[in-house]
Amino acid sequence: MPIAALTSFLGQNTRVDPHYLPPGVGVSSVNQKPGESGELRPWKNPLPISGPVVPSGRITLYRSGRDTPSPTAFWWSWTTHVNVTRGFETNDTTERTFYTGDGAPKWTNNILGLATTPYPTSYRLLAVPQPTVVPGVALNVDGATGEPRRLYYCFTWVNDIGWESAPSPPVLAPLAKPGAILDLTVSETVPAGNYGVTTVRWYRTQTTSAQGDAEFFFLRDYAVGAGGMQDDARELGVDVLPTGPDTLRLSLPTTAYGLTYCWNQFAAALVGKTVRFCSPTLMYAWPLSNEYEIADTPVAAAVFAQRLLVLTTAGGELFTGSDPEAMDQKPMAIAPIVSARSLVSADSFCAWAASDGLWYYGLDGYRNLVGEAMTPAQWSALDPSTMHCHYFELGNRPLIIGFYNDGTLKGFVVDPQNPLGIYFLSTGYTAAYWDKLQRKLFVLDGSELKQFDGDSTNMTVTFKGKIERQVEETEAEWLEMLAGGASTITLYADGVNVFSQSLTTGEHRTPDGTEGREFQLEVSTSTSTLGVVIE
Questions:
Q1: Is 509 in contact with 462 (CB distance < 8 Å)?
Q2: Which of 67, 84, 247 shows the shortest CA–CA distance to 167?
Q3: What residues does 519 pair with on adjacent strands?
């Protein structure tokens, strides 16, 4: 009858007493690749990627060239925590990409961003500034007949890619009869900044209005700085300018962060103690009608299954709906997030680091993914405030991989379907990026980009099993190593290392001095093994 055995390997559990761990769960698992076959397998070493220029000190990675599966082209990076999302403009051919976290909200593309390394080279601000100076209107030639009208004018700035600002303050034109020609002037200059403004777009009311609150219809466009701008009595267009206090096409405030693509061609961003959604298809327009107050300060936001979960300093709030102006808002009593970089989302769930564990919320419920494997104090010792986590797929199994710094860069892997064990990594990285297109994880090691689990050589995996207690003192006489490559097998008897040797598949006689009542096995290998049995 076996004294001790390791025939399955299900990760590390330090919460349960080592005597009472379930089969397959150990007290230590380092560099172990989670698997369903039952064997102990190591991760492969990271594969260096030659070519990309990524300076050291970067903590956010993003790969541009999203339509091309290439490990070398094109890597963008930042020294701050940046949220990046690709645009949803169907007529865009330049892979326009938006981001927050690097100062004011910005956008770039495969022209601006890829001029020279390191990428992105340059950017434009995610804004078209609203004019603030009242324009001028003067009567040039009055109309011939009809009753004089009270008409209002305003203008907007339009940039070179068609984005339009909120309107200037309106101006009341001199009384004039239908058919009058009026001269239009703009005394304001475009604010300094790389907004790309090229056009002055004029609007006018169509009917008499005593308060200037009638609808403004499109009149005509002029190049910025053009002279001789006029209302030449042409027919107004059908487009109506949003002018209400809640419907203005406001720019996203410069303090916004946490930009996240939602669904139905709109996005969300965090602004102060609010979450605001852009108008559908208009990433540059963020009206106040799409703003929702949050009870506590937002930290980060994740999207899954057409749900937006906003994590706050005290819990969270969930948003659902198809219209940014009519979202359903629900407070959530969930664990507060302690690191914005730890938030990871997938198609059906999201997860984040709290002070007491790695919490999960998805279509199948809410739970602490490490709550059965380690105590809150043990989790806290990993310094969760330093964590950044990422989605990862092993075959068809969704995993969460995280990196932390408790004085040394290290990592861990959690299988949402295996709550009993956690898999640790001996090495951590400052930044990482899961590439959905290539289904690969890339990590930054100093200034060297690497593909995680990509090399032909293996890490060394070490697994230490539970404590097997015997009824009486027993001597271990035989050790059988099941199928696998050369492995170092260590046997502990009553807590003392009594045997440690590199062995291959087959039965092996143990030396004298292996007596004890409590036995524990440890396996270390850079190949794989199906298990070890001591008799």
A1: no
A2: 247
A3: 468, 493
